[in-house]
Amino acid sequence: MPNSVLWAVDLFGKVYTLSTAGQYWELCKDNRLEFKRVSAAMQCCWGIACDNQVYVYVCASDVPIRRREEAYENQVGPPSGGWCPGKPSPPNPHPARSDRWQWSDVSGLQQRPLDGVALPSPHWEWESDWYVDENFGGEPTEKGGWTYAIDFPATYTRDKKWNSCVRRRRWIRYRRYKSRDTWAKDDPKQLPDPFNDLSVGGWEITDEPVGRLSVWAVSLQGKVRSAHPNPEGSSWSLMDTPGEAVQISCGPHDLLWVTLWEGQALVREGINRNNPKGSSWSIVEPPTSENGIMHVSVGVGVVWAITKDRKVWFRRGVNSHNPCGTSWIEMVGDMMMVNVGLNDQVWGIGCEDRAMYFRQGVTQSELSGKTWKAIVASRESDRSHSGSSSSLLSGESCAPSDTDASLEAERLGPDQPVPAESVDGPRNPRDSLATGPGIGRTTEHAVEVTSLATPAPGPGLASTPAELPWTNIDLKEPKRAPSHSAAGFPETAGLSSLGLLPLGLEEPYGADDHSLWAWVSGGGCAVEAHSVLKWFTIQSGKHRSVWVKTGALQWWCDWKPHKWVDVRVALEQFTGLDGARDSILFIYYVVHEEKKYLHVFLNEVTLLVPVLNETKHSFALYTPERTRQRWPVHLAAATEQDMNDWLALLNLSCCESRRVHGRPSPQAIWSVTCKGDIFVSEPSPDLEASEHMLPCDQMFWRQMGGHLRVVEASGRGVVWGIGYDHTAWVYTGGYGGGLASSTSNIYTQSDVKCVYIYENQRWNPVTGYSSRGLPTDRYMWSDASGLQECTKAGTKPPSLQWTWVSDWSVDFSVPGGTDQEGWQYASDFPASYHGYKTMKDFVRRRCWARKCKLVTTGPWLEVAPITLGDVSIIPESPDANRSGHSIALWAVSDKGDVLCRLGVSELNPAGSSWLHVGTDQPFTSISIGACHQVWAVARDGSAFYRGSVSPTQPAGDCWYHIPSPPKQRLKQVSVGQTSVYALDENGNLWYRQGVTPSYPQGSSWEHVSNNVCRVSVGPLDQVWVIANKVQGSHGLSRGTVCHRTGVQPREPKGQGWDYGIGVSGACERRPSRPGVAWSCCVLWDPVLGCTGGPRWSPSGVWKHGLSPWPPAATADKALSFQGGWDHITVRANATRAFRSRSQETATDWSGEPGLPSTPSRVAGASQEAHGPVCC
């Protein structure tokens, strides 16, 4: 980094530097934090971050910052005897010989053992261990560095004399400051209270040691404190002031000015080398009595000030002998703040346009300068326009970042609704740049942020990009607004003064029209009076444009108690110099009458998903960090149309930012949520890399139109799906539908599903079975778990997109059977239900079903007439021979029949006809592997293998029965290149051991994990699952996409899980049933988090149900994010280079030819095969 740079903070809290020799703003190397104010010196910069903590940034250089630590070893001994260590007790200054500590400082009065010398902060490190200093007065010593004297203290010599009764030697150790080019946090223990402002100076005080700084600060309580850094600072000393301070400025010499809340200024007098803190305060009155001083900045011999009406003033007659000066002179321009740097050069930030200005013509003979000139240097390293801004939302960021704004808000507590009316927009910055910052002002408030302006479009504006349907959703492009008179200015320029956010330009004035600044510091910027700067040249080329969509939504707040709050949102889209587009979503809310915001860069968004909710038109927005937290940004619109408009626009903006367009690639990963929405992700080659694997929480999922329950894809672009009504659908090659979509291959699609509720009854000797249960019983009308109350009248369709198409009717097809009236009986709730009554049955239940229908559009065509329950397409590997053969597709009908589809190809993805494959019992799941190995699961939970399947014999010849894992009933199977995985009804995932080409049935099942809902094995034997529940730092996630890591040829089961996207559940609910005490427990699984979620129980009895939430009657209602992912297929993903043939030969499916390999056993999990059984 150059020695002379200008430091600045933009409205988003990011710190930039501008070199005097450059023309681009460079983002600070350590950009994890967001700052409010900075104060710079030549080689360092101090700042106050959004957490009100103090940080220091020390620029890297070839010369390290080193500090020597020393300790003295003292020994005593009579002339005739040997030497012995100093006394372990404190030294006595009064006896004839003042004995010292064995280890002490140079004075001998302070004990200093070597192991007691610690580093002052984590920002230091030791260069080496302790060693003896063998130099004395520039000459080497003898005998281990000892020096001798008659007594302590005395004159020491190198040589031992006859009267030398004491001796000592010095031990040295160096520590090095290691936190270079990074923001080092000051020790919070040394901060008595949070700071509001700080200033660095004092390095040019007469005879002051080189590198010595003075740091002055003002706390939020209005107290002034000072410290002397080393380099991060020592303890802060309190300075008494005659009033409450709000802002402070320290010059490089002995000038120190402070602004008071009353609008006066304090001047510190008596600052010199011997007294760097000064001796007394003097009061300076403001230029006018109507408007007090709100900001000051001092240099070597100048003082500049801003009054509350944003006027700029220059103080005349200031020098070291008269730090108070003589009088005020008003300057041209309206500014938010000014800063005086080296050589008394001045920078400022415009009041209205937030552009940065440099005061030209400042010389020693004319310290006030001549005119303001705008700095139009572009931001070369602005990550928000380069398509990658992950560092802007890191874990250490604080509000207003996406990551930690929620944490700050949680500490603050509940908020208040944001006012619906917006503040007037800013004037076109081009006008300010042309004529200076003093023309026109807008109303601003001393809050963290104000509402975005939405002025009406004017004539002559650039047209909206054709591919973006902005005009359909109330797009308003900002135009040149007239100037406004000043009104309602804040009393002070506090930390929260971020002002207005300009949204766009009628005619962009330069390459950096988006630069909006909040603070500037020139303490480390040396600009000579006649130097030539490149800051004022406008880059030629295509200009950037900004488009904005604003509106009112509701936000599920991040703090407790969680609730919906009214917010204002704004979507800004940029078009960069290279034509690339990027967008930022702002969410404005109010906390304790203070306006705040959080923002999300859309190039970091990984998912936008509608949320299944009965009362809200809501959707969730995920980023990698939010995915790990299991806590998305959750928004709701007033109407369904508004939600669809926002979803379509945000989805399109996300795709624009990531440059993802058109139909998915043949290698895409497809998935379906529990709501039936279809999502697709383009896999990265690093997704299945053995080293440096891409975390799956960074995968970008875009929504496709349509509605499905199951989706299956192949590497040749053929995709099939199955709806909730078991209708088969084939992908047409279009994209979208319901969202922004292609103009062809989009068709109407409908789906029908059933909603189930249960009628529960308990038997009593008087009335028999009735709806009056015990206080600890479940609701008499409930869901399947009994924990959610569901009545006929109160039960609604899954979302507002569904409509009822039938009335309630008894469902006689529930597992376990029913009697003639549909009742199932059991001894208690919950238990194993059966369709007949016995003497021990005291409870019963009956299932009621009602159909609802959804009509939408998407790139899907129906495959009639057979309805399906499951489908599987062969996962072809990259080196597969595709010549002349159709794509193998197997399916199971909703009746349990096994079918093979003939004639499927890229040109005819729907195929031509079905070929029935006989079975002796109904099947429920089927999967075909890359080598045409077909596995299936029957309704009784047993597994089967189909023999002799090949391209020339697509139906095979016979079924071989495969024993299930002990005491488990399988429900799904998935086959890859060589691996076979199965899933049982209890959510346990099993791997089939001993599968070889000569023994494809394998030998045993080995348990891999539990808490799994769905498994998909790809052509590279990669394993992906849908996990039931995954715990995050902020919430619980259901239906989570998980990737098996460490899958290798010799370790096909893998080693662990990488957690990806999943829809999160809300926070706790407290049941409010009178007279019943509820408690909760969470069962934790080390692999996939919570195995069952919170189990609510009255009177200490645990309720083991399917739902992780307590009953619906609650004292504090909370939102339940129903859903999550229900299905995923990676069977088309072969983006990683497949392992070499030599590796395959070496492993040979982990066994000798013709012999099953010996499986690794897990207690109670392995089941040896007794040989295939032909059906």
Automatic annotation (TrEMBL):
Domain called Peroxin/Ferlin: residue spans: 64-133, 145-178, 750-811, 822-855
Disordered as annotated region, ranges: 74-101, 378-440, 1139-1175
GO biological process: autophagosome maturation; regulation of autophagosome maturation
InterPro entries reported in the protein's UniProt record: Beta-propeller_rpt_TECPR, Peroxin/Ferlin, PH-like_dom_sf, TECPR1-like_DysF, Tectonin_beta-prop
Compartments where found: Cytoplasmic vesicle, Autophagosome membrane; Lysosome membrane
SMART domains for this protein: DysFC (SM00694), DysFN (SM00693), TECPR (SM00706)
GO MF, one example: phosphatidylinositol-3-phosphate binding
GO annotation, cellular component aspect: autophagosome membrane; cytoplasmic vesicle; lysosomal membrane; nucleoplasm
Cited Pfam families: Hyd_WA, Pex24p, Tectonin
Low complexity bias: start-end ranges: 386-397
SUPFAM superfamilies the record matches: PH domain-like (SSF50729)
UniProt entry keywords in alphabetical sequence: Autophagy, Cytoplasmic vesicle, Lipid-binding, Lysosome, Membrane, Repeat
Cross-referenced CDD domains: PH1_TECPR1
Family listed: Belongs to the TECPR1 family.
Summary of the function given for this chain in its UniProt record: Tethering factor involved in autophagy. Involved in autophagosome maturation by promoting the autophagosome fusion with lysosomes: acts by associating with both the ATG5-ATG12 conjugate and phosphatidylinositol-3-phosphate (PtdIns(3)P) present at the surface of autophagosomes. Also involved in selective autophagy against bacterial pathogens, by being required for phagophore/preautophagosomal structure biogenesis and maturation.
Assembly and interaction partners: Interacts with ATG5; the interaction is direct. Interacts with WIPI2. Interacts with the ATG5-ATG12 conjugate, the interaction is however mutually exclusive with ATG16, since it does not interact with ATG12-ATG5-ATG16 complex.
Name by which UniProt lists this protein: Tectonin beta-propeller repeat-containing protein 1
UniProt source species: Canis lupus dingo (dingo)
Gene: TECPR1
